[in-house]
Amino acid sequence: MTSAGGWECTADGLRLVNDGAAPDGYTNAQIDDYQHLSRRDFSWRPPLRLILRARFSHPSIDETADPATALSGTAGFGFWNDPFGMAGPRPAALPQAVWFFYAGPPSNLKLDIDTPGWGWKAATVDARRWQFAALAPTIPLAVPLMKVPSLYRRLWPIGQRAIGVAERSVPVSMTDWHIYSIDWRRDSVTFGVDGRTLLETASAPASPLGLVIWLDNQYMQVTPWGHFAWGTVAKAQRQWLEVDWVAVSMISP
User: Fold this and answer.
1) How high is the mean pLDDT of the chain?
2) What is the distance between the alpha carbons of residues 227 and 242, in angstroms, rounded to a whole number?
3) What mean pLDDT do residues 245-253 have?
């Protein structure tokens, strides 16, 4: 927990709360299982299933035309490799994640060519793949070309596949209770909402990852045309993520 972040037990479950987040400081309410571990000691590898029942205090920016009424910051649940060392003294790394992820304004993580850079998504990323290492020397040349719309539409799918990005917007209200599932196998990931398949990917991270459930006040901007920014936002209203139950189990490969 940091700053105005905290937990609350309710009649329905556990709430991760941001209460009074300021724009000049990082606020986070988080549950994870990798504090102070090296990445090689993270607990989870495929094949497994994460399933939980959850809801949020505010709607997605996709649901409302007024950013002031939407959930702000980032939030979600799933598995990742904590690439920026936010939960322990570990070096930075290329990102890997398998999760349901929310980014509110002014975030713009434009990694999937057909999905907005913000909102409530099912998503994977695996920038530690050999395909990305092979493509990396071309980045200085490719980034300026991405500013040309026709070249962006032609070239970015190559980069997207190289970093293992697959995304799909989640077409349900964040403020309602829903059952979210992630079936993470060695060569694919299947995301489900209320028992219906939302997204099936053609690749998946193989490295051990850590479980994380969180709500914070940060934003990030990362685009193929070379725009990078990070910061924090104020939360004028109290916001929360509530989890009724959660389970992780092994599944068939």
Assistant:
1) 95
2) 33
3) 96
Contact 204, 189 (CB under 8 A): yes
For the record, the structure tokens of 62 come out as: 């996709």
Pick the closest to residue 231 from 1, 4, 15, 21 (CA basis): 21
CATH topology classification for 5-250 = Jelly Rolls (2.60.120)
Domain residues of the chain, as ranges? 5-250
For 230, counting Cβ atoms within 10 Å of its Cβ (0-12 exposed, 13-18 middle, 19+ buried), the class is: exposed
Q: How far apart are CA 232 and CA 27, in angstroms?
A: 8
pLDDT classification of 236: cutoffs 50, 70, 90: confident
Of 61, 52, 62, the closest CA to residue 16 belongs to 52
Residue 173 and residue 69: Cα distance in Å, rounded? 14
Question: Across-strand partners of 178?
Answer: 54
Phi first, then psi, for residue 18 (nearest 5°) are: -110, 115
Half-sphere exposure at residue 246, Cβ-oriented, CA atoms within 13 angstroms: 16
Nearest by Cα to 208 from 62, 35, 104, 79? 79
Give SS3 for 132: helix
Q: How far is CA 147 from CA 40, 155, 251, in A?
A: 38, 11, 43
73: left (phi over 0), alpha (psi -120 to 50) or beta: left
